[in-house]
Amino acid sequence: MRNFKVKTKILLLTLLSGVLLLAVGYTGFATMKEMAGASDEMYRNNLRSLNAISQVSSNNSAIEADVMEMMLTTDFKAGQDLSMDISDRTARNAMAYSELEKISLSAEAQALYDEYNKLTPDYFNVRSRVVDLANRNLKNDAYAKFGTELQPIRVKVNAVVDKLNSQLLREAQTNNAASLEMARTSSMLILICIGVGIVLIAGFGLLISRLVSNPLRRMQQMMKRAAGGDLSVQGTYLFRDEIGQVTLSFNEMIEGLREMIRKVDESAVTLSASSEQLAASAEQTTGAAGHIATSSSELSAGFERQAKAIADVSVFVDEMEGNMRRLGSTGDQIASSVEGANAAAELGSEEVRKTIERMNGIDGSVAHALGVVTKLRRRSEEIGAAAVLIEQVTKQTNLLSLNASIEAARAGESGRGFAVVAQEIRKLAESSAESTRTISEIIAAIREESEAAVDSLNDGAERVKLGVESGQAISQVFGQIRSSVSEVRGETSEAGQLIGLLMEQTAQIADAMREASSIAQQGAAGIEEVSAAGEEQLSTMEEVQSSALFLSRMAEELQHTLARFTLEHASAVDSAVANEESAQEIEAGGAEESAESNGLNPVA
Question: Which domains does the chain have, with CATH numbers?
Fold first, then answer.
């Protein structure tokens, strides 16, 4: 069993489980099939026969009741209905008899059924004669035949039917009890199969689990010893399954590790000696590189001072060049400003001339408006006089209406209409007086506003005259500005030419200083590169020296680390003792494992 592969072991466990499941399933299927056959037999031989006999018994009872009713009724229509019901029930009994003929009855039930068949011909004949007598309205004869001939046969038939029902019921109960017993037997058999299957699967699974987990635990112990530095471990599980192959591979790996550790130990000794030699050489090279770096630093400092002085002069020349450029730009701006001022002066002179023309136009408009306002004031005075006249007429009309009202009052009833007219005239006079007062107030306001407008127009005319005089003076000033601007434009042009010449000379000086500064910077950069190279070489040699010392320490640490590995094979006795200790540990863990799991435990 140990030489079987793990896959084969698991496959055997699976196959056993499948066989047991198949056995349980087949047992259940066979039992269910038998129970289904018993249920079908009960239905066909018991329930159908009971149903047919019950139907026959019920129909016979109904027919006898119909016969009794036919003998008692005198209604012809009711008699026909009863006769039709008897025929219908007789036909249904025939169908029930046909159904019973198809059913396989037991010997006892068949004997009772045969006895029933012997009685039915006489029973049907006598019943038919009774029905015939009742249909012919021979009630007494029918009743006498029913009591003397049909009644004894009916009692025998009913007794046989009752016996047949009881026999069929007993057979149904017997079949039902047999089905229940079969179900109990099948359930017990299935439970036994399930129990046996569980025991077999659990036992076989535990066996496979121990066959797989115990060697893995031993392998785990050996791996722990190897991880602790004991490379003398050797696997002893040499069977042909996967765990045996893993054990062989583990032994080969341990042998390879032992060989590698030996080679690494030898290399560590060689590396330690080489590192000490490299550290001594690096120390000598570091001293030479430090001397070169010091000389290069002093030479670089001199170049840097020279480059700084040239750079300062170059900055001064650049600033002077910038100032000259700004001066030239300022001269251009001044020339542009002079041109703008000249154009603005000409434009201002033109605008002043136009303004004077507009002022003259405004003066004419003000004079015309003054004349119009004067005419308006005269018209308002005329309207005021007319309003005074209207007011006088209104007062006279009001007085006349008052007199008319007095006369109408004296006239009494005949003067009532005249009084109404006088009243309306008085209201009209009062309304006219009110309108006249409003007009007078408006005319007074217009007169005051006209006088204010005349004063304002007179003041505006004076101001227009002053504006015309000021415009003429401003025009003269703009003429003087144009002449001054022309002189400044000529001087600005000459200054611009001188500034351009200075800018060219300054640019040449700046180019020369920039070239000198570039040469000095290149020289300083070259020295700095030499100095940097020396410093880099110095740093590199220091790193090499440090690395050599570190490598030497690492070689010593590697030798110290390799010293903890045990490379020699353990003796046969030591190996047996170690395996025995491992087996005891595995057995202690396996006892707990067997109660919990049937699978593989994880290996650290």
Answer: 6-213 (1.20.120.1730), 316-540 (1.10.287.950)
User: pLDDT-based confidence at 573, cuts 50/70/90?
Assistant: very low
Identify whether the C-beta of residue 105 lies closer than 8 Å to the C-beta of residue 113: yes
The position carrying tokens 């023309």 is 357
Residues ≥6 apart with Cβ < 8 Å to 18: none
Number of H helices, E strands in the chain: 9, 0
- Would you call 112 exposed, middle or buried from its count of C-beta atoms within 10 A (0-12, 13-18, 19+)? buried
State the Cα–Cα distance between residues 149 and 126, nearest whole angstrom. Answer: 7
Which among 551, 539, 536 is positioned nearest to 278, based on CA atoms? 551
Separation of alpha carbons 280 and 499, rounded Å: 71
Are residues 50 and 169 in contact, defined by beta-carbon separation less than 8 angstroms? Answer: yes
Mean of the pLDDT values across residues 326-340?
A: 67
User: If you write DSSP's letter for every residue of 520-535 in order, what string do you get?
Assistant: HHHHHHHHHHHHHHHH
Give, for 15, the enclosing helix (H) or strand (E).
helix 6-41
**Quick check: 166 and 46 in contact, CB under 8 A?**
no
Buried/exposed 202-233: b ≥16 CB within 10 Å, e otherwise = eebbbebbbbbbbbbbbbbbbbebbeeebbbb
Give the 3-state secondary structure of residue 566.
strand
Give the number of other CB atoms < 10 A from CB of residue 449. 14
Print the SS3 string covering 342-399.
HHHHHHHHHHHHHHHHHHHHHHHHHHHHHHHHHHHHHHHHHHHHHHHHHHHHHHHHHH
Mean pLDDT of the chain: 71
Three-state SS for 192-244 is HHHHHHHHHHHHHHHHHHHHHHHHHHHHHHHHHHHHCCECCCCCCCCCCCHHH
CA distance 123 to 117: 10
Whether residue 134 contacts residue 82, with contact meaning beta carbons closer than 8 Å, is answered with no
Is a pLDDT exceeding 70 seen at residue 288? Answer: no
Q: CA nearest 232: which of 589, 579, 584?
A: 579
Cα 210 → chain centroid: 51
Of the two residues 350 and 578, the one the predictor is more confident about is: 350
Q: Give, rounded to a whole angstrom, the gap between the first and last alpha carbons of the chain.
A: 26
Q: What DSSP line would sit under 127-167, residue for residue? A: HHHHHHHHHTT-HHHHHHHIIIIIHHHHHHHHHHHHHHHHH
- Give me 248's structure tokens: 């062989």
